[in-house]
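stage 2 :: seqdesign
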């Protein structure tokens, strides 16, 4: 099975550990861009520094068939290119032991793997929508079509939640210790959301099983950070040039990385904290909140208003002084004051670092990519801060502008009357509202009335509705660039 990539790795980047000794002790759901440049690489570097056997079995539940096929063809090795503003460092990841895909291996093979005794952690990067949770409440969305199908047929699941519950059932029935469920998605209190979704589902299928999960399984929260844009033909060509062979599983990312993990594992864990950027703590929630509000909140702001303003990438928005200032002000004036951080946390330093990371010209992070799935992202990136300011009577104009930018974006038409390819689980609902109202301020109240995104409280606040309407009006009449400059 040795391929050219492994030949290269043998020659230039041979790891210090014996790959043959690794076991699939982690099953990871979501072999996407992010995981390759984050957990898989952290695990590789942890293995370099410790004598342990924590290997990863990669699974994609939805899509990514070609990626898994290709990964197998290259002996489960792949490249990560860390691109700084001036130089690039290439690493070959050796922590992956095997891979599965339900499309060609079948659902039972996936479940059997998750139920294997040595599997101690099931981790996930399945996107916000993968939790099948109501974005406003974080509880299982029982109307979700995947969940409905899995409730009807729990032994043949499709959703990640369905797989986890069924795999835990198999383990309990076979008297095998459970695994820890570790979410690595950008979801506020991701462990708590994963737990709520799993338990809500389990209680609907088997109360006794639900009780066993509640008593025996842990769901640590994690804060994950590294900007990893989707691979493009350009990044893959660059990797080919750097490595000397083609690597369709290769991925480029920024040099920065951070991983703060709640130390709450039921069946052992690797010492990821031997690697720079990873640490275990007792309470991750403040760190998650800081990252989601300051980084992801400003990212979404820049994504919607940047896309509408004609900027294809985040680094392009940073060339406009108004966008740069608005992003910084949003972090420091709208988000930072809502946080409750451990003493000594330097939020201003963090904001400056974020602006520097966004400016990295080597990283082509598309505004369109970040704009995806806004219905799942807006509540956690802006909702909590908004409620904070509304209660305190403080200024939140950056948040109102961000929400208005998103509302304009989901109209599906840009400032040059070109169609926007809006990707969102709720896109049909948006289309219906825009069909009824057109691009007109009357749509604002309707969109703010979507309970799954905004709950029931925000729509009742007239001054909030007026503020978003004012921002929306400015965007649709003067354009996004002028609207951002007005801040
Ligand atoms: P990607 O598009 O490369 O991969 C998405 C992954 O999610 C695929 O493996 C796919 O199989 C899986 N997936 C999609 N829908 C699913 C569903 N309904 N159920 C189960 N699995 C599903 O995206 P990428 O970049 O890997 O990001 C994935 C997530 O990782 C993000 O949504 C975010 O929560 C988190 N993340 C991403 C960062 C980035 O910069 N790319 C940084 C920090 C976190
Ligand atoms: C981005 C994030 O796609 C998005 O919504 O905001 O994936 C962002 O790149 C990461 O969270 C950075 O850690």
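stage 2 :: out
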């Amino acid at each position: 099975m040795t391929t050219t990539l492994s030949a290269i790795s043998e020659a230039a980047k041979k790891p210090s550990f014996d790959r043959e000794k690794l076991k699939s002790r982690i099953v990871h759901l979501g072999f996407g861009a992010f995981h390759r440049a984050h957990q898989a690489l952290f695990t590789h570097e942890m293995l370099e520094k410790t004598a342990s056997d924590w290997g990863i079995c990669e699974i994609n539940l939805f899509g990514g068939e070609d990626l898994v096929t290709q990964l197998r063809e290259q002996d489960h090795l792949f490249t990560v290119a860390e691109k700084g503003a001036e130089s690039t460092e290439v690493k070959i990841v050796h922590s992956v032991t095997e891979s599965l895909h339900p499309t060609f291996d079948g659902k039972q093979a996936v479940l059997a793997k998750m139920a294997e005794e040595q599997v101690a952690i099931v981790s996930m990067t399945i996107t916000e929508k993968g939790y099948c949770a109501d974005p406003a409440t974080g509880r299982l969305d029982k109307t979700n079509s995947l969940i409905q199908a899995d409730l009807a047929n729990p032994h043949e699941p499709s959703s990640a939640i369905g797989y986890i519950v069924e795999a835990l059932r198999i383990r309990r029935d076979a008297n095998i210790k459970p695994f820890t469920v570790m979410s690595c998605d950008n979801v506020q209190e991701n462990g708590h959301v994963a737990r709520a979704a799993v338990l809500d589902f389990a209680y609907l299928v088997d109360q006794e099983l639900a009780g066993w999960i509640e008593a025996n399984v842990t769901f640590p929260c994690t804060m994950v950070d590294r900007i990893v844009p989707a691979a493009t033909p350009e990044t893959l060509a660059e990797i080919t040039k750097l490595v000397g062979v083609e690597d369709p599983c290769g991925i480029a990312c920024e040099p920065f990385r951070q991983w703060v993990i709640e130390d709450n594992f039921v069946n052992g864990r690797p010492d990821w904290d031997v690697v720079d950027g990873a640490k275990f703590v007792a309470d991750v929630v403040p760190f998650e909140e800081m990252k989601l509000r300051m980084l992801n909140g400003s990212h979404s702001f820049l994504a919607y208003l940047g896309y509408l303003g004609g900027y294809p990438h985040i680094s392009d928005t940073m060339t406009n002084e108004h966008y740069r200032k608005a992003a910084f002000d949003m972090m420091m004036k709208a988000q930072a004051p809502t946080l409750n951080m451990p003493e000594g946390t330097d939020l201003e330093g963090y904001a400056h670092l974020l602006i520097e990371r966004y400016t990295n010209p080597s990283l082509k992070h598309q505004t369109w990519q970040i704009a995806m799935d806004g219905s799942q992202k807006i509540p956690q990136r802006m909702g909590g801060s908004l409620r904070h300011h509304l209660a305190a009577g403080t200024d939140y104009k950056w948040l109102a502008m961000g929400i208005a930018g998103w509302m304009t974006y989901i109209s599906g038409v840009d400032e040059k009357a070109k169609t926007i390819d809006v990707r969102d689980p709720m896109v049909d609902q948006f289309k219906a509202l825009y069909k009824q109202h057109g691009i007109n301020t009357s749509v604002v109240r309707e969109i703010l009335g979507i309970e799954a995104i905004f709950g029931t409280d925000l729509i009742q606040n007239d001054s909030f509705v007026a503020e978003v309407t004012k921002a929306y009006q400015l965007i649709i009449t003067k354009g996004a660039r002028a609207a951002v400059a007005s801040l």
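stage 3 :: structure notes
- The chain has a mean pLDDT of 96.
- The domain at 2-281 is CATH 3.40.50.720 (Rossmann fold).
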